[in-house]
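Customer ticket, subject: "Can you confirm the structure for Carboxymuconolactone decarboxylase family protein?"

Message body: Hello, I'm evaluating your service for our small team and ran a test protein. I'd like someone to confirm that this is what the system normally returns, since I don't have a reference to compare against.
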Amino acid sequence: MKWLWGIIAVVAAVAVGVVIGFNCGGKSKMSDIKQTDPDIAAVLDNFIKNDVETRGNLSRDMRHYIVIGAHVATQSRDGLRAQINSALDDGIDPVAIKEVVYHAIPYVGLAKVYDSIVLTNEVFAERGIKLPLASQATVSSDTDARMTAGTQTQGAVIGGPDAVAARHAAALPDLAHIEDFLTQNCFGDYYSRNGLDFKTRELLTLVLLVSMGGADAQVRGHVAGNLNVGNGRDVMVDAVTQLVPYIGYPRTLNAISAINELTAN
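Agent reply: Thanks for trying us out. I re-ran your input and got the following:
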């Protein structure tokens, strides 16, 4: 089986390398890929630049946020480095870049996102961006403050404060703390932050869940959440379209199924 894993590793390396070189209008970070793999380089260059990036009505900034989020969720370190540099070259605010990475923590998990934080700091240091950046926190560590902020933001996503209260009331006694964590931490600590607007954060949540895979129920939940905050079918389809080269067709089609299911009319 060693030969099979060797082939998989080579194919994966080539795919990642080419995608790194051709994204979001950025300059190639893998200058030799056109020489070593000209056929696939040409296919991907054409697909990303002429097919994917020309579709939809997302802003340049949002396209960068989406692709950065995809690389965080898939743990593509080299790709993430290239994407951050490309975003900075296009004038994207370092605060916004950091907030995209931070927003991944409650969904992708700190074990995976920690390296992305460190890598982002490395790129910022190389570019002369002074750290730490200005704080974007809007709540303290006080539990009540976090619960209040979280109830407001979670309610906007799932249908109002009564919907949040219903979730807490329905929780089994040994799982009540998980509902508390979800409201206080995910929605209180993260969604309440400045640096990205609320609708952008909810769209990024969908992007992160779709990109990492294995979260179909949560994808459906956040398709509904995006509709609740005003991100319509067109916005979600545009976002998923930008993900195609980076996450592949199976995860893309799963996301489209969820969008279709909830926007059939």
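A couple of notes from the result: The mean pLDDT is 91. The radius of gyration is 19 Å. Feel free to reply with more questions.
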